[in-house]
Amino acid sequence: MILILHTHPYPQRSRTGRALLESVRDLPNVVVRSLYDLYPDFDIDIATEQAMLADADLVVLLHPVYWYSIPAMLKHYFDVVLTRGWAYTSAGGRTGSSAKPGDGDALRGKHLLWVATTGGTASSYAEGEMHAMPFKGYEAPLRQTAHFCGMVWEAPISIHGAHVISEDDVAEAATKFRARLIAWRKPDVA
Ligand SMILES: Cc1cc2nc3c(=O)[nH]c(=O)nc-3n(C[C@H](O)[C@H](O)[C@H](O)COP(=O)(O)O)c2cc1C
User: Fold this and answer.
1) Among 98, 69, 95, 90, which residue's Cα sits nearest to residue 147?
2) How far apart are CA 61 and CA 83, in angstroms?
3) What is the mean pLDDT of the chain?
4) Å from CA of 58 to ligand 1 middle
5) What residue's CA is closest to ligand 1, atom 12?
6) pLDDT band at 98; cut points 50, 70, 90
7) Backbone angles phi, psi at 74, to 5 degrees
8) Per residue in 17-49, is it b (16+ CB within 10 Å) or e — as a string?
9) Which end of the chain is more exposed for a tag (fewer CB within 10 A), N or C?
């Protein structure tokens, strides 16, 4: 199962993220959780969200970039859902060092795909430009969160200039995203 955690505070105003989401909604193995719709008061149902994650092979984070990071809801989701003893070991270490099976290994081996839209254009994410460095420079905390929980980091997708790119470019990004999810297979574990 592919679990899409869609976190957009104003989904009706979304242009690019919405196009990506709508392009994959009908896929039979895709489950969408739009967190701002589900939890308008931020009162996340932890047991339900952990069960959804446990069922997933691939977790997709789909959101607009806010202040070079994830929206507040997704940060809160990490804070309350990725608990010690479930997402990482009760000893506080990463899952790979867990001594006891079942201690903090709920996410181990699952794959994580980060799909971010930005207002900044592709050329503005460069040294000396408005956003100071390539967009890849902003992925480290998320990538390490995945690694800390024993997850496999997939090559991310970023759509820049989400307000200014053409309708054709939005449609192309959505088509590519759909193709990527259709092609995704859980790797065989030896
Ligand atoms: C509070 C806030 C913070 C934002 N921070 C950034 C940012 O750090 N970098 C950036 O490129 N765009 C930033 N944006 C622009 C959003 O990323 C952009 O509106 C969104 O990706 C567009 O996608 P959508 O069409 O799905 O809404 C910000 C927007 C808001 C409202």
Assistant:
1) 95
2) 18
3) 95
4) 25
5) 119
6) low
7) -70, -35
8) bbbbbebbeeeeebebbbbbeebeeeebeeeeb
9) C
The tokens of 64 are what?
Answer: 């607009």
Q: Residue 62 has which token pair? A: 């789909």
34-53 per-position pLDDT tens digit: 999 999 999 999 999 999 99
Using alpha carbons, select from 190, 188, 129 the residue that is nearest to residue 160.
129
Closest among 50, 187, 19, 44 to 115, alpha carbons compared: 19
For residues 144 and 141, what is the distance between their CA atoms, to the nearest angstrom?
A: 5
Name the pTM for this structure.
Answer: 0.96
pLDDT at 63 over 80: yes
Q: What's the rounded Cα separation, in Å, for the pair 151 and 139?
A: 15
Taking the centre of ligand 1 as the mean of its atom positions, its distance from the CA of residue 88, in whole angstroms, is: 31
Structure token digits, residue 18: 């919405």
> Which long-range CB contacts under 8 A does 74-79 form with residues at least 24 apart?
74/5, 74/7, 74/35, 76/42, 76/44, 77/5, 77/7, 77/35, 77/44, 77/49, 78/145
Closest CA to 6 of 27, 96, 28, 30: 30
Nearest to 7 by CA among 66, 52, 56, 57: 66
Q: How far is the CA of 62 from the centre of ligand 1 (A)?
A: 13
